[in-house]
Amino acid sequence: MSEAKTPTPTPPGDTYKGWVFKWTNYIKGYQRRWFVLSNGLLSYYRTQAEMGHTCRGTINLATATITVDDACNFVISNGGAQTYHLKASCEVERQRWITALELAKAKAVRMQAESDDSGDDFPSSSPRITQGGGSQNSEVQSALRTLSNKVEDLSTCNDLISKHGSALQRSLAELDGLRLTGEAGDKIRQVTERATLFRITSNAMINACRDFLTLAQTHSKRWQKALQAEREQRVRLEETLEQLAKQHNHLERAFRGAAQANASPDNKGAAGPGKGEASDEDDDNEFFDAMEEAPEFITVPADPQFHKRSSSNISGLNSELCADDQSLNEEPLAMNQESPSQELVPLKKRRTRIPDKPNYSLNLWSIMKNCIGKELSKIPMPVNFNEPISMLQRLSEDLEYHELLDKAAKCQNSLEQMCYVAAFAVSAYSTTVYRTGKPFNPLLGETYELDRKRESGYRSLCEQVSHHPPAAAHHAISDRGWTLRQEITVASKFRGKYLSIMPLGTIHAVFEKSNNHYTWKKVNTTVHNIIVGKLWIDQSGEIDVVNHTTGDRCHLKFAPYSYFSRDVARKVTGVVMDKDGKAHYVLSGTWDEKMEFSKVMQSSRGGENGTEGKQKTVYQTLKARELWRRNPLPDGAETMYYFTALALTLNEPEEGVAPTDSRRRPDQRLMEEGRWDEANAEKQRLEEKQRTARREREREAASQRTSSQSEEGAPHDSYLALWFERCEDPITGEEIHIYKGGYWEAKERGSWESCPNIF
């Protein structure tokens, strides 16, 4: 073997690289490889030129063990999946690598503990907001973290010095006991090497001490003065920001008032984000500016000739829709007539109130101002900004207007059915209009059942199938001929002025009678006025509802709110087309109030569309009919988190549910009861328990992996969902979780032995 190049020692935490011999197989033996140690990861390449494009293997030192075989050999393993047998050219070089690896491992373990991916993790005590404006100065906090890391480096170096010092003392003791024999030369060389190793480790500790002292001397004298100056400056900046925001709002309100004065009477009241009573906002409100986009199409009343020509068809359509509505209202009576015994058992009376929300003053900006650009699930949040339901229960709220799917299941025409499915897709957002609270992040394995079979004919089950990224699988089936399933992963970013929430995943609706299979995705949600003013929510984006059986399609557009638009706020428009692209229905309305549809009698190209020069499509339509209208909120909803009638019942205790059901989650229950301090403590306990369970799964998975795996083999997620199984979706080709059955049967038997203990 050729002589390996000795790596250049670098300070702890920096990149460490050099040539080391690595065992490959019994034919080739040890081969020279270029190793790079950086950020707690040890990677290797065949040559230095490969560093830019081809990595042969990487091992994470945070979970690895480092052992020494003999004078030059050492082994790095992460539990069996990856094991590197390495050999240095001499013992001194080997010890340099061992020292660098142990320092990097200690730092990686600390970093992993500090940024533990706990989802909703938050500090044990909320940040104390002082009159000076904020918690500790960011510069001081950064310096303290740096000093703390240096102290940890000193501690690690101290352990290494003790270890090598003991070895040196043993060698010296052996040398003292020797007589002048032939072994004297070997022992003297061994003592020399031990002394060299001790010197290398001591130098590392001395360098760490020097860095520590330099930082301390640089910062200690001006910390107090800098901290006071920063506090005063922050107070001035926050006062200036608030004044600017108020002035900005007054100017915008004045502009809108002038615009309304010049607008036609039909456009009055359409400039604000709300309608009716909700449009009376505070002076501190701050709204999101969106450029007004020209409509993609125009609808005009159809010519009288179309009314005469199609009178028989339209009357048939109206009678069919009326028959559907009537049969839907009579269906529960028919069900009771078929089963007379059910008439003797009254339906369960659901609760209509929950405890009022406590009036705790806590500034959202004080929590989120240091989290701009971060994932929402990584932001430490106390329960003060939650609402007392979980994300699984919020997902079940999509069934608030399940009767739209009931009506769709009765439709004979797939295009009419598409109208109801599109209205159902829009109705899911009506429950969010005033809901600015954040639902609880579910624990891994948490479930939620919504059994409304006797009242409404459907059953729904949700399960948290992944924690990072957070993903929930949902399956609902109805006796009225439809099935709904989805797997949603929520990505979110805090942008400073607003919060962006991006749901990822596909929703499926399948109708048993027609075998029509519909899919669509969700639009983005934006929470505005994070800094100052009253929080408000907007939905924006586009949805394509596709019937994979017939090829029909409905394109829905959620218009973002704009100050300069004279159109109604929260507007949604859409066109239902067949597989050939011919328009049959036009949908219009708002996502927080109602949706209507109009039958298209004729379409043509009209004028140009604004600056782009595109021609708008003009649809001649019949009179609009109402598809869906939002149910009014319960009395006192403003003190109950603006919950709908369905949402008020979601966390109501029920007997017989699984031990993993969200209703049994103690921190959520404590928050609903108004005991927020206890809820925060319980929430922290549950998340720590979840982290412990995750680490245990990782250890078990590592121990079960065989040594026959390749060097580059990557570990896999060992968690398997209980009621859903992962497979490829035959429609979209996505890897999703689909309900595999067994939950409702287990509930009937009362057999929950397979459920994990997550609470």
What is the oligomeric state here?
single chain
- Rg (C-alpha, Å): 33 Å
Order of adjacent strands in the largest pleated sheet: 4-3-2-1-7-6-5
| Mean pLDDT rating | 78
Which structural class do the helices and strands define? alpha+beta
Distance from first to last alpha carbon? 58 Å
Question: What fraction, in percent, of the residue positions are helical?
Answer: 25-40%
Q: Percent of residues in beta strands?
A: 15-25%
Largest sheet: 7 strands, antiparallel
- Give the overall shape: elongated
Q: What is the number of helices?
A: 16
Question: Quick one: how many beta strands?
Answer: 27
Given as residue ranges, the uncertain stretches (5+ residues, pLDDT < 50) are: 1-13, 117-136, 264-292, 310-344, 609-613, 710-716
Write a structural description.
The protein is an alpha+beta fold and 759 residues long. The protein is 35% helix and 24% strand. The strands form four sheets. A seven-stranded antiparallel sheet has the order 4-3-2-1-7-6-5, covered by helices on one side. The chain has a six-stranded antiparallel beta barrel with strand order 14-15-18-19-17-16. Helix 1 packs antiparallel against helix 2, helix 2 (138-177) packs antiparallel against helix 3 and helix 14 runs antiparallel to helix 15. The longest helix is centred in the N-terminal third of the chain and has 40 residues, at 138-177. The protein is elongated and about 120 Å long. It starts with 15 loop residues before the first strand and ends in a 10-residue tail after the last helix. The model is unreliable at 1-13, 117-136, 264-292, 310-344, 609-613 and 710-716 (pLDDT under 50).
